[in-house]
Amino acid sequence: MEFRSQALNTPLTTELLGEHSPLSQITTECEISASWIRGGDGLIGFGEWKSTTVTGPDRFKKARTWWHEQLSSLSIHNNVHGSGTGPILFSSFSFDENETSHLVIPKIIVGERAGKSWITWIGDGSAPQLGTLAESHAPQSLSWQQGTLSNDVWQERVAAAVGRIKAGELDKVVLARDIVASAANPIPLRALMSRLEREYPSTWIYLVSNLVGATPELLVRLSKSLVTSRVLAGTIRKTGDEAHDLALAGSLAKSSKDLEEHEYAVRSVADALAPYCSSTNVPEAPFVLHLANVMHLATDVTGVVNESATPVDIFTIISSLHPSAAVCGTPTSIAKSIIDEIEEMDRSRYAGPVGWIDARGDGEIGIALRCGEFAPDHKSIRLFAGCGIVAGSDPAQELAESQAKLTPMRTALETL
Question: Are 215 and 203 in contact (CB under 8 A)?
């Protein structure tokens, strides 16, 4: 089977995409099946050439094996070169090893970076024709249902977690919650993604096997030998008043509770990367990342892969990084056992690694946050949010933070 990549003469973000929205782009042959978009750059997949699922503690190893098996069967003709060109594996891994992870290789992939665009497709013929047909959909009337736990019960679980932390069992644990939206008609996927892309351009807009979201957190980017991980932990809700929000950003940067939570997350990432890198760089202090509705403490951890060591690929790094303190807790094993004990929610692929990997082993993998998972008929979607719980956490404040983290998906759905 042949995979071909060639440059497109027209920049996608001007004439072909219209309104600067990558997600208005469709092909004449098949519907969108996967995406990874940030600020107009990224990858969009259409149709499925191959897909599979993996489970178990060795799911990252199984994914690597399956991907390499598919690559060995391909004849790749690539006149574009560079990261993200050629055949692409889109992956969405479960948070828990016992849940199902999804792997997809699209039939057609359209990519753009820094004003340069390309297309990858199966077959020895000419490149598929692209169009900008709009997705038609009826106005949605959504009904909302509470998720696995009510607000009051979830706050009780937060209080229980704080008690375990104060008793010295662990330093931090992340507790998640969910809500469900339902509609009489299928909820339009591309309209939802276009809304997210417009409203949250500094996040990565992703889609893999009905999991869709806008994550601000990059678990790992591997480009040749350079590794980057963006760590987010510590959150405050925006008010919409610029002066007040600037003051809130200052208070977040000085908050002992949030700085403690952030330190645990950064340390877990730096420690996980250290065995594979000849050098790492961890900034002394975080910066405040401003998103549309919240602000986060953020740190970009970077490293250079040690080429003299046993060959390291992105699957190895993912398996070492997941789950980080940002989505699980510290110490990880104890936090995971407490999540299993008191969260009482199937996270599915929420807070799991999600993103893309190319034939050279380069890729970008985020953490599946600010997301929802569609039912097969697309008439309902389950939204997720989580909060890092430390000794200074207050249940009511954590509930408010979780509601802020649900806002991107909830608002996007309500304004379709």
Answer: yes
Distance, CA of 11 to chain centre: 26
User: What stretch of H or E contains 65?
Assistant: helix 59-72
Is the whole model's pTM more than 0.85, yes or no? yes
Distance, in Å, from the CA atom of 290 to the CA atom of 288, rounded to the nearest integer, reads 6
Which structure tokens are listed for 337?
A: 């056992």
For 224, other C-beta atoms within 10 Å of its C-beta total: 11
**143-414 has CATH 3.60.120.10 classification:** yes
Of 275, 2, 250, 9, the closest CA to residue 118 belongs to 9
> What is the pLDDT averaged over residues 139-159?
92
Question: Tokens standing for 62?
Answer: 């199984």
Give 108's contacts (C-beta < 8 A, 6+ positions apart): 27, 29, 30, 45, 46, 47, 119, 120, 121, 122, 128
CA within 13 Å, CB half, 231: 32
Alpha helices in 116-172 (DSSP H): 151-166
AA letter at 60:
F
Query: Cβ contacts of residue 134 below 8 Å, gap of 6+?
Result: 24
Tokens of 168: 């010295």
The answer to whether 326 and 232 have CB atoms below 8 angstroms apart is yes
DSSP 8-state class, residue 274 = G
Q: In the chain, count of helices (H) and strands (E)?
A: 8, 25
In terms of Cβ atoms closer than 10 Å to its own Cβ (0-12, 13-18, 19+), residue 303 is buried
Q: How many CA atoms lie within 13 A of 366 on its CB side?
A: 26
Three-class secondary structure of residue 411 per DSSP: helix
Provide the annotated active-site residues: 172, 217
The tokens of 93 are what?
């891994």
pLDDT band at residue 16 using 50, 70 and 90 as cut-offs: very low
Task: With both helix axes pointing from N to C terminus, report the angle between 151-166 and 332-342 in degrees, rounded to the nearest 10.
Answer: 150
Distance of CA 137 to the CA centre of its chain: 26
pLDDT tens for 310-345 read 678 899 999 999 998 889 999 999 999 999 999 999
Domain boundaries, the chain: 2-127, 143-414
